[in-house]
Design brief:
Distance between the termini: 34 Å
Number of domains: 2
Strand order of the largest sheet: 3-2-1-4
Shape: elongated
Helix content: 40-55%
Number of strands: 4
Order of helices and strands: HHHEHEHEEH
CATH topology of the largest domain: Rossmann fold
CATH superfamily of the largest domain: Vaccinia Virus protein VP39
CATH architecture of the largest domain: 3-Layer(aba) Sandwich
CATH class of the largest domain: Alpha Beta
Structural class: alpha/beta
Largest sheet: 4 strands, parallel
Radius of gyration: 22 Å
Number of helices: 6
């Protein structure tokens, strides 16, 4: 193994360790749109019951096998959803945040921060900066979604001193142009029902970040 390969492997291990550190959150971040894993789980159980009845009541083994396959698909989908919303997305989010190459003094805005998973992971990387989270706090989009819940999570993560929370619509941000070094958003913009509204949210993110202005990107 060459020195370059060793250095690359060590760098990867260091990055993975940093990701685990940032992604290991102590707060409670609920479920994203809880109705979907519940619906998938319910469908899986219904198919399972129908499969059992196909063998024991209707004596239709082929139908029973088909039902078991459908049941396995829906139950696996429900389990995958739960894993993603409770664990997997944090590791992916931590990896993306590290790839941004933050200096630690940036002003960051999170659109639709919810209970603060991405916002608070980012705040850990901003010891001299500030992380601002905005949301309209709809519980239908995330279980238990509320400003007070996110504030509590910020305290549990030890970053409350560098986090601020506001109630605001991402289509009409209450910030002047170029107020932030970068703007992030995770599983939030799609909750705006109409394409025009989603376009407005993205345009507002560009305006608030001043991303088109020279020297605004992290590390530039």
């Amino acid at each position: 193994m060459t020195g370059k390969e060793v250095a690359k492997r060590l760098s990867r291990r260091k990055r993975d360790a940093m990701n685990r550190s940032v992604g290991e959150l102590r707060g409670d971040y609920g479920f994203d749109e809880l109705r979907w894993p519940l619906l998938l789980g319910l469908l899986g159980l219904l198919w399972l019951m129908l499969g059992l009845m196909s063998f024991s009541v209707f004596a239709l083994p082929i139908l029973g096998v088909i039902c078991f396959v459908c049941s396995a698909f829906f139950l696996f989908s429900a389990a995958s959803y739960v894993y993603t919303t409770r664990w997997g997305k944090f590791q992916v989010g931590a990896d993306i945040l590290h790839q941004l190459g933050l200096r630690g003094d940036e002003q960051l805005l999170d659109l639709g921060c919810g209970r603060g998973a991405v916002l608070l992971m980012a705040a850990r990387l901003l010891p001299r900066g500030k992380a601002i989270g905005i949301d309209v706090w709809k519980a239908a989009e995330q279980s238990g979604n509320a400003l007070s819940t996110t504030q509590r999570n910020a305290e549990l993560e030890g970053v409350a001193d560098r986090v601020a929370l506001l109630t605001a619509d991402m289509r009409q941000l209450p910030f002047s142009a170029g107020s932030f070094d970068l703007v992030v958003s995770s599983m939030a913009i799609h909750n705006i029902g109409d394409p025009e509204g989603r376009r407005q949210a993205i345009e507002e993110a560009v305006r608030a970040s001043g991303i088109l202005a020279p020297g605004r990107l992290p590390g530039s």
